[in-house]
Amino acid sequence: MSNPITSEILPESLLEHRAVKAWRGLRLGLGEPASIEILKKSHKKRAIYRLAGVGLQGAAVIAKRCQMTTGLIERTIYEQVLPHLPVTAPHYYGFAEEDDTFCWLFLEDVGRERFSPLVEEHRLLAARWLGRMHTAAAHGATAARLPDRGPAHYLEHLRSARRTILRNLTNPALDTDDVAVLKTIVSQCDALEAGWHELEKCCESMPSTLVHSDFRAKNVYVRTDQAGTALFPIDWETAGWGVPAADLAHSRRRYLGHHVDLITYLDIVRECWPSIDMSALQLLVRVGFVFRRLAGINWTSRSLASEWTEEPIACMRVYQAELSEKMQAAPWAR
To answer: Superfamily assignment of 120-333 in CATH?
Structure first.
């Protein structure tokens, strides 16, 4: 999973590293690391390490440090949900609290090959994996243990993004063109909210189920071994319970039509959901695209208070253009 970076100085004794201390706290008796690779380091927040040789049969283990709020969601998924579903998943070693704010998750290292929507085999794998997960999880008693990820969740993303954008329009780091883009996004949010009931209707044809909510290349790995080629989604921080719209929608404009093989997905889910047809599925994908963009706008808007706005504004320009394209033919935005 991921490639190493070198922005952190490791202690002379690896046993003194915080990831190793947390790993040893699990008391699994699986040994000490031969080396540590830094895969991701975010100041005071997330950090991901590869601990070489400490897993089963000497395999590497991924140690992920994250905030407790999202770590508990992932813990629920790995401990209580995925083991009961007919899908592939990384081996889960355990969970450790660091303090009241941060925790650690320890998972099997499933390799370095990422899912690519541009590869047909990967799109077929994604369709089968998601189809099996969505239909199997819909019958389980998991809803009460997971946060809501239905239309109401994304409506809150919309409202939060709009509030944040309006609050930061007077940032002197923004020029006239930047402000115009942001005001256009606010208008798009107004139009979407006005037609939100229509968007909700588009979701009524699909049952609620477990959703990953951030199913994209950086969060999905592909591994080929003697058993064949298999998919391994990771990073369940935004997972929850809702219609599978966001899981089916592509994350980038260049992947238009190249995310999940919908024909294969439909063949699988129809066994449990016979009323679903391709037109309903395609409509759900369009809704999912809007959901994903609203979440992206909300996350990006939090950087607008900074004096360095070039990167968030560049993202906002893309989001604005993509929403405009989708809303032109959308019944919920007329």
So the answer is: Aminoglycoside phosphotransferase (APH), C-terminal lobe (3.90.1200.10)
CB 164 within 8 A of CB 298: yes
Residue with the two structure tokens 């369940």: 236
Question: In CATH, what class is 14-108?
Answer: alpha beta
For 246-255, write each residue's pLDDT tens digit. Answer: 999 987 665 5
Using alpha carbons, select from 213, 198, 277 the residue that is nearest to residue 243: 213
Number of residues written out for the chain: 334
Rounded to a whole number of angstroms, the distance between the first and last alpha carbons of the chain is 43
What pLDDT was estimated at residue 30? 74
Nearest residue to 284 via CA among 176, 159, 217, 200: 200
Q: Each residue of 308-332: pLDDT tens digit?
A: 999 999 999 999 999 998 888 776 6
| Full-model pTM | 0.92
Residue at 211: amino acid letter: V
| Distance from C-alpha of 137 to C-alpha of 133, rounded to nearest angstrom | 6
